[in-house]
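Exam revision sheet. Question 4 asks you to relate a sequence to its structure. Input first:
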Amino acid sequence: MAIMYGCPNSDQVFDICVIGSGPAGLAVALTCGRRGHSVIVLEAGDQKKASLALDSADVLDSTTHAPLHVSTRVGFGGTSSAWGGLCVPYDPIDFSRRSWISAPEWPISHDEFTRWRVEAARFLGCGETFDDTGSIAIRNEDLDSGQFGRLARRNALGKVYYTAVATSRSVTVCMGVRALNIICDSTGSQVVGVDTSAGSVSKRVLARRIVVAAGGLRTTQLLLALAQAWPRHFQSNTAPLGKYYMGHLTGEIAALVLDNPRDAAAYLYNRDPDGHWFQRRLKLPPSLQEMERVMNTAFTLRAPMLNDPRHRDGALSALALLAPALHKVSLAKSERLRAAAVGQRSSDRLLHLRNIIAQAFTTMRNLSAAAVRRRIGHLPFMTLNSAGRYALRYHAEQAPNQYSKVSLGSKNASRLTIDFQYTHVDVDSVVRSHESLDKSLRKLGIGRLEYIVPRDQCHDAVSNQARDGYHQIGTTRMSDNPLEGVVDRNCRVHGFANLYVASASALPTSGSANPTLPVVMMALRLADHLQNTIAR
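Answer key, structure tokens:
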């Protein structure tokens, strides 16, 4: 088979048609292709250059949703071309029904899902160990520091798997082919193909099974169009299709000050024996989440604010003094440099100079080491500092909300309307999680939080930083009950015998994890299910 532009001229009926060549689509296609099943992948974009995936959508609130040209991509490899590479698994609590929020229970267990974690980690090239069982990890009723977030060695999966796809005897990737509509048979009980366009050429691609893996928003758009043609499968206006649109809340409202500055070494980026980078995550254990009635939130260390010389880090002080010049060059696209480039006080400059002079050798060593780590690992600029002071980055779960949704335009059904919303529940959970973490750190003698905004302004600060649109979770969520979800436990769309979804949109909860690793786990599980159905 081959990677080609446009669809093949034959009228072959493929075993599987995959819409989209992102991480999920490639995982399904390659896994099924290795078993000898004929697979055709429809990719709307170009082989070499990533471009906008959604050119027909309207975002109602641009303050909460990232621009589509930033958050969506087409092209071989999909959104992995813009992916930061972070791989984190979901936690057991993410799968459970929690009485204090509206999160549904997954129809599959955490253990069943985790079965695919090692294979997904190998597919993404991030290293396989996510749980620390060593003496450094803290796992008690106050704190959980035993989970790693790992970075994939190579982010653009189109480049990683180009040769595997190009040499496959079973997989055909069709570039520049846009899926227009999913086509059913006369009964509406199963799908038979996909109507496509490639430039001025239209063609119907036929397949026995169709997997929609076009990213959360585009996947939902295709199913919404199908629902217009076959509304009885989607429970009309009560359907969850397009609703419960989730992402995460991220930002910084506090600094972590460690009682023992040397302890920070365990919480910065480190490298395992196989050369994979990882970072330890701080979280509240499930029992404390339930007690405090908060959602799942992960905290990681980042470099402190450069303008604040209290970090006593000569390397950071050097960057602060150079910020007015560095932030203008493309080499240093950093929010911290931009912030440090303005508002510096003369008194702070003297303190920065003192930091540099007091540890001149360490300053040069840390600058050199951080530059190397940035170049080879694409890591944030971070070094150990003698004050034990670091910015605390939060990555927080968002609660399902039926009013956060996407829908087809009322005037133009070919356009998608995106109404992405955060609520006070989301924001309040972040603030109270910080308060609980502070209590736990003090109780365990590890350190304390110092807020970088006035305490009475924390909710506003979290709201102002709340923005997503990258993770696109929940709009085709999984449930055994068609009234509560769009796909079943095997990612099959309710009401159709052979239509499936492989996308973050099928995840019922957002958790504290970036969704790439869980989505590939889901895709590999789906591929295994497809192989079993074909075998029968």
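Marking note for examiners. The first strand starts at residue 3 and ends at 5.
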